[in-house]
Amino acid sequence: MKPTEALLNEILDEVRPLIGKGKVADYIPALATVPANKLGIAVCYNDGEIIQAGDSEERFSIQSISKVLSLTLAMTLYKPEEIWKRVGKEPSGHAFNSLIQLELENGIPRNPFINAGALIVSDLLHSRLSAPQYRMLELVRDLSGDQHIVYDKVVATSEMQHSDRNASIAYLMRSFGNFENEVMPVLTNYFSYCALKMSCVDLARTFSYLANKGQPLGAKEPIISQTQSKQMNALLATCGLYDGAGEFAYRVGMPGKSGVGGGIIAVVPGEMTIAVWSPELDPSGNSLAGTAALELLADRIGRSIF
Ligand code: DON
After folding, report:
1. Is the complex ipTM more than 0.90?
2. Is 64 annotated as a binding residue?
3. Per the count of CB atoms within 10 A, which of 48, 73, 258, 273 is most buried?
């Protein structure tokens, strides 16, 4: 069954009582100022039809959802073995910003969606592109069809001022020889990607290539191949929600990616892309009410990859 706007509104009403039970991210101080009661959802069908409810057009900080875009870009620039010799494809079982495994595993991050892995991907982009920030903005504007998407400089600067942990992760990888560029310029780019400001509608449109074998909405050419799209969805299903990936697979049953801004994208391959936003997070750093909304939607429309 196709979700209607009424169904989406009903789902938002059902999860709204969860607001107050999570915690808005405050380790990036600029994120802590976002009102906790924001709640939005958008579904984009592969034919471009959008169904939406709540604060679905309000832009927020996409944070780690940007890690899917940077990996997509890296996949278009590098041979698979050049990427996967530097970062793994396994769930980490640790927090997204943990350093523990990195020391034990010789500076090779478990997967491209924890911070360490995304910093490797940013390092790869830095090595091959003369203006990676510009290229990323161009990519996201093309994929979403919205030329007005920008980086939130306040959020990027706020994160740069509190970057000790990410800097430590990058320097540790560099000490193992797994970092090609100077750490600070790569961190600056990474924080900008994370500070992209997008709405649920923007996100659902942007990631529809993952529901459509690598083919973006309205584009003539696929951005990545059908095989790469399958690979990305597999990585999202196993690692996209960090140490909450198993719980998310159990409850929602779709490849997904979260961000500490409270956004989550989820993919139903062959059919639709969904984006939700609710700023309060669960202990794994994933949107609490957002996950609940996706769980209800998956159940009501009878969709899952399992
Ligand atoms: O590097 C960080 O910590 C943030 N810019 C992104 C982390 C994040 O979004 C984790 N996701 N739920």
Report:
1. yes
2. yes
3. 258
